[in-house]
Amino acid sequence: MKTIIFFFFSFLMFITGIYAQQAYLFVYVPYQESGKIMDDSISFLSEEGILTQNLLITNGTYSCFYYFYDNSIKYKQDSAKPIDLTPVIVKEYDSAGQHYGQMKLTHPALVKQVDTSCVVYKNLREQKLYFEYSSRIAYGAIKKFFSDTLFPMKWTLIPEEKKFGNLLCKKATTFFRNREITVWYCPDIPISDGPWKLGGLPGPIVCWEQPADKALLLQSMHVVPDFPENLVSQWHELNSTHIPYYPSYRRMLDETAKKTKLLWQQEKSNCVSCQNTNSAKLTQTLTFYNPYEGIKYVFDL
What we know:
single chain; alpha+beta; 2 domains; 13-stranded antiparallel beta sheet; three-stranded mixed beta sheet; 4 helices; 19% helix; disordered N terminus
């Protein structure tokens, strides 16, 4: 929680009068997911024990989206449950006069993710975007900024309206990162922005309805005097540095996933209870994904 609280209060501590343009702080929560908002008014704890934050601060020129994920509570709960080590046969074959069966464990490998976060900086005036994913997943940490195209998605505006609280919103769809995305935006607020890398609509995105593995709903909106100076400084620092483009990010992610798979395989080979007892090959599925990007890795260990 220290990481969460520090980031939120850094928003408030560094607000100055340098930039006169009015800024907004949007707090999003998982859409149609049971849980509660914590006492800090920005953190959401789901019933299954996952803590998240989704914050967007923007003034129409500068923008910063921050995502935080911690499944420590769920990991602890799942680890305490009895594990069924009874394998099931997924493949059988005969070879050299012998009958073999490939076995698979029915339970997934547990992966603890702590202080997993995503930061996306946008500059609508300069048409630039930088992003960073920081993750303590399985082994080590991934932390490096990459650049991406600002608002490359082509929106289809749908003549439908829906109310979210007091906000009357309109519907839009697009195909981005290999999946269909549906959002609801509010044209009454003069901000063309949204969570993660989304934006480019005539109003802020209030509800991200179908992003495959994530869905977000605006929980609250706060008007702040100015955009935080420290985030502007961070933007200028990134802008003066060579930042690799998105394909470099995908290559790094693929390499990290392969290394993670090898490390899990090594651990499994040293696990006495995981060894095969009937001369069949025993496999276990490891699945982990990158939030928002729609990237998922599934390995048989």
